């Protein structure tokens, strides 16, 4: 547009600088498309592989569907193999992750609210403890926890995985930051003047205003407990206590030992798909909430 | 009106100070459940591990008398310092950090910057979602999936590479397993870092970008001279978190080791702790190694925290 009015030298200049951004954004788009392919293709392959018969799985190296479409059959053998243990594992995963997260988020909300909204001696120290808990990864605790639990004979019980999973310092951390910003002191004072007890104030005013961050903390904890591998690996020896990930790990081990039925590879793949699907789908819907958690955790 | 306005704050203040008990007891009561769990399942096990690490099981010659444990001070730690299997694992995770973590962070930064300059809303949402999806896959499931994709007799990838002329290609072989695991870790964790960096980029004030554009800065210069320096605190933190992450590496190599002999039982320090405790049955020595790892992680975390604070203060 301005090139029409300008001289020829300026025109080529303008054209160049117009061309190069266009080229640059074409490159950007191409790059992002390649990235999408990289992250997506293993998941697509998992879906097609879970739909193959044993012969088709080993008979072809094709990326797409090949041979008869066996997904429904594979699902049925996955859930019926070994007396239907897979369904039990799925239920265990749900119990561990939802159970631990319900208690975990409740206790985290209480502590986060207290640390944000009250001035009391030891507050700084307690928050330091929470921070150190955020930074020490769960894997360094697995062996010490095993030693502690074997002393009190709780190894190889539901409690062995459930109780340690309750502790959610990251939840306290994001609840504290959120509560400090989202809950006005005046509102708490008004409730006090109305004669509310401190616990009632937390339960009515606090929890209501903290709802978004509670959802975030809950999501994170469910994901973390659902995916936790080392703790159940160390604690559980009876397969009826296994969560899904440990069950799949076990099937994968068994498949290499020999003596396993030939369809073991089909049920590993189908089982993997359905160990991922519940959280994968939840992710699609809860993305915003999870991103908020990362944002609070990373930036503040 | 004005009388009421001046009255109420005084009233509030007095009420708060009038009840000294409730303002200390209530927060402590609210904190109690969390810190009780924290003490029982974080502090107690750590202390117990430290205690065990200073002991040694002594068995009588014939094994007739029950084994007794005795105090040996720091001897387990001295042994750990000279333990080549632990040292080898530490060197290996350092290699993973230098190769995998750093290249992943470069990739995540490029993706984040590319996303930031993309104008299509739908495109942005799709890329962000797809990057983040592997993060929701349990790492055992991800490792099982990839180990199938590395298995020569059924993998479309191995098939493609072999038909492209590299006939001996086997990602599970001893000299390629490092790259195989590097790929798995990158696939799992890039999206998490992208989200952190994208969030940090959103915090860049739009006026800064606008002013640079007015001055005629190209998108390239905008990305390298303005956005990248502003990403520094987030990048420093992501780097240190990755370092802590690879130091803890366990699930991926442990899962893959089912189908290949390329991964030894002491491949990473955490795998070595696990083998020492449960295969070699040396619980006291395993505790000492676990404490060393916890201390290393603690130091790194502390450095991470200090570094992010100092950098964000600049």
Describe this structure in words.
The complex is a heterodimer of chains A (300) and B (314). By secondary structure, chain A is mainly alpha-helical. Chain A folds into 2 domains: 2-49; 83-299, MetI-like (MetI-like fold, Orthogonal Bundle). Chain A contains 12 helices and no strands. Chain A has helices spanning 8-49, 54-59, 71-117, 123-135, 139-151, 158-166, 169-182, 185-193, 198-227, 230-235, 244-257, 264-299. In chain A, helix 3 packs across helix 6, helix 7 packs across helix 9 (198-227) and helix 11 packs antiparallel against helix 12. The longest helix of chain A has 47 residues, at 71-117. With 314 residues, chain B is mainly alpha-helical. Chain B has a single domain, classed as Orthogonal Bundle (MetI-like fold), CATH 1.10.3720.10. Chain B has 14 helices and 2 strands; from the N terminus they run H-H-E-E-H-H-H-H-H-H-H-H-H-H-H-H. Chain B has a two-stranded antiparallel sheet with strand order 1-2. In chain B, helix 5 crosses helix 8. Residues 1-21 of chain B have low confidence and may be disordered. Chains A and B meet through helix 1, helix 3, helix 4, helix 5 and helix 6 of A and helix 1, helix 2, helix 4, helix 5 and helix 6 of B.
């Amino acid at each position: 547009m301005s090139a029409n009015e300008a001289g020829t030298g300026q025109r080529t200049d303008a054209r160049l600088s117009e061309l190069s951004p266009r080229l640059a954004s074409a490159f950007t788009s191409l790059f992002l498309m390649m990235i999408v392919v990289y992250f997506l293709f293993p998941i697509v392959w998992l879906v097609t592989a879970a739909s193959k018969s044993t012969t088709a799985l080993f008979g072809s190296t094709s990326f797409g569907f090949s041979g008869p479409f066996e997904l429904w059959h594979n699902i049925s053998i996955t859930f019926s193999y070994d007396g239907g243990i897979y369904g039990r594992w799925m239920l265990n995963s749900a119990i561990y992750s939802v159970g631990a997260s319900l208690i975990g988020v409740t206790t985290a909300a209480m502590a986060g609210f207290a640390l944000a909204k009250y001035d009391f001696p030891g507050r700084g120290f307690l928050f330091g403890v929470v921070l150190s808990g955020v930074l020490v990864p769960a894997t360094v605790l697995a062996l010490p926890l095993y030693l502690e639990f074997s002393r009190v004979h709780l190894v190889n019980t539901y409690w062995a995985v459930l109780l340690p999973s309750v502790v959610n310092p990251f939840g306290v951390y994001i609840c504290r930051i959120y509560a400090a910003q989202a809950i006005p002191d005046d509102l708490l004072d008004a409730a006090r003047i109305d004669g509310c007890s401190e616990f009632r104030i937390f339960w009515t005013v606090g929890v209501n205003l903290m709802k978004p961050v509670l959802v975030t903390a809950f999501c994170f904890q469910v994901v973390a407990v659902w995916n936790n591998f080392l703790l159940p690996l160390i604690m559980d020896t009876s397969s009826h206590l296994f969560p899904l990930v440990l069950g799949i790990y076990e099937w994968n081990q068994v498949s290499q030992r020999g003596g396993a039925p030939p369809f073991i590879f089909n049920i590993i793949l189908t089982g993997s798909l359905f160990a991922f699907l519940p959280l994968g789908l939840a992710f699609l819907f809860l993305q915003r909430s999870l991103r908020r958690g990362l944002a609070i955790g990373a930036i503040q | 009106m004005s009388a009421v306005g001046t009255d109420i704050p005084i009233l509030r203040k007095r009420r708060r100070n009038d009840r000294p008990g409730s303002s200390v007891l209530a927060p402590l009561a609210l904190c109690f459940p969390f810190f009780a769990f924290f003490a029982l399942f974080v502090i107690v096990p750590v202390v117990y591990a430290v205690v065990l690490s200073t002991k040694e099981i002594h068995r009588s010659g014939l094994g007739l008398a029950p084994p007794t444990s005795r105090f040996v001070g720091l001897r387990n730690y001295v042994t750990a310092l000279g333990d080549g299997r632990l040292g080898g694992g530490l060197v290996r995770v350092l290699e993973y950090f230098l190769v995998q973590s750093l290249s992943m962070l470069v990739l995540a930064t490029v993706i984040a910057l590319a996303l930031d300059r993309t104008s299509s809303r739908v495109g942005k949402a799709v890329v962000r979602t797809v990057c983040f999806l592997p993060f929701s896959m349990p790492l055992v499931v991800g490792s099982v999936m990839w180990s199938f994709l590395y298995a020569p007799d059924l993998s479309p990838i191995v098939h493609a590479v072999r038909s492209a002329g590299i006939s001996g290609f086997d990602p599970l072989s001893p000299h390629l397993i490092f790259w195989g695991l590097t790929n798995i870790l990158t696939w799992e964790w890039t999206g998490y870092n992208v989200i952190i960096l994208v969030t940090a980029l959103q915090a860049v004030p739009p006026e800064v970008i606008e002013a640079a554009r007015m001055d005629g800065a190209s998108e390239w210069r905008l990305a390298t001279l303005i956005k990248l320096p502003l990403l520094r605190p987030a990048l420093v933190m992501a780097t240190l978190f990755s370092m802590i992450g690879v130091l803890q590496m366990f699930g991926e190599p442990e899962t893959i080791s089912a189908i290949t002999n390329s991964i030894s039982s002491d491949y990473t320090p955490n795998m070595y702790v696990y083998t020492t405790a449960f295969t070699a049955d040396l619980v006291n020595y395993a505790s000492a190694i676990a404490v060393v790892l916890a201390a290393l992680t603690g130091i790194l975390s502390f450095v991470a925290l200090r570094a992010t604070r100092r950098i964000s203060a600049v």
